[in-house]
């Protein structure tokens, strides 16, 4: 497999998660109405139930992929994802929908954990950060086009067709993976699938200061993103009354994230992960602070173009932070890459989704809870980066990273 196909495949595997979340955002209102959900904040559980399943199941896939290789657990997870997508098409109640969304997320956890493990199997240091940035750039195509695709599907029929579309796309990606993905786990790195070996790998991950602190920092930053995803439909449609233009606004912000990922891939080899991500974190804090000031003391509601400008600038910084923080956390853990990816993914996904639920459920008809949440998590993220780096920012530990 060539480098371009490798990047495209890894991006599409990771994009199955974005597809399962972003494409159905335009249909949340109809989902709630058709299944008898009166409290509009409760519609957010369609997103958060998936994310919880995604996060919790990551603890299983990492040790499995360190014992049995990357291919088999990956294909198993994709199979679960496809079956649940089809099941949701005929789901009879909101509770059953949430249950299937949880299981669907549990299947998709394989694509989150094992994709990162595969990249770490093949690349390390700045090369890994460069490849992860390119993967994220391709991956971000899905959030750009998914809400618009969901809106078009809604024009053609009802929300059930969205999940049928997800099933067809995931089936195609599953066949591609089956046909072309090689086994990347080095036989020397195979670990026994026993309780003691798993706990030992967890100990290695959780006692590494750099890995732990960057993971916690990522958790809080991702929490803000999950908070937005949970309340995006309420903000864009409820506050700003964008209606069918909601996917356009969503895509515009995703373009900024994709651009940041592309630029990160170009510059990380020259400047290093720490310089780029630390600088972006400081930029994230500044943008969200100014955003909060305008939200509190400016006109209510904030003009939609100004809201989009602040949000796009924040997400541009996020595009520099995400891939680099993940690579910095994984860098010292290559010998337990599968379990490391699962532990770090579990912490960032479950922790981030909990933070996202708190931010999303705080929605009160204004964007203030979201904006305040963005600023708060940026400060907490900086604190943990400072702990991990012993107070020193922007300093590469060696020429590779």
TrEMBL record:
Localization of this protein: Cell inner membrane; Cell membrane
TM spans (from-to): 44-62, 74-96, 102-119, 131-153, 159-179, 211-232, 244-267, 279-298, 304-323, 335-360, 366-387
Chief location category: membrane
GO terms for cellular component: plasma membrane
Keywords, sorted A to Z: Cell inner membrane, Cell membrane, Membrane, Transmembrane, Transmembrane helix, Transport
Domain Major facilitator superfamily (MFS) profile: 6-390
GO biological process, one term: xenobiotic detoxification by transmembrane export across the plasma membrane
Cross-referenced InterPro entries: Efflux_drug-R_Bcr/CmlA, MFS, MFS_dom, MFS_trans_sf
CDD domains, alphabetized: MFS_MdfA_MDR_like (cd17320)
Pfam families reported for this sequence: MFS_1
Bilayer topology term: Multi-pass membrane protein
Gene Ontology molecular function: any one: xenobiotic transmembrane transporter activity
Family to which this protein belongs: Belongs to the major facilitator superfamily. Bcr/CmlA family.
Entry protein name: Bcr/CflA family efflux transporter
Organism encoding this protein: Xaviernesmea oryzae
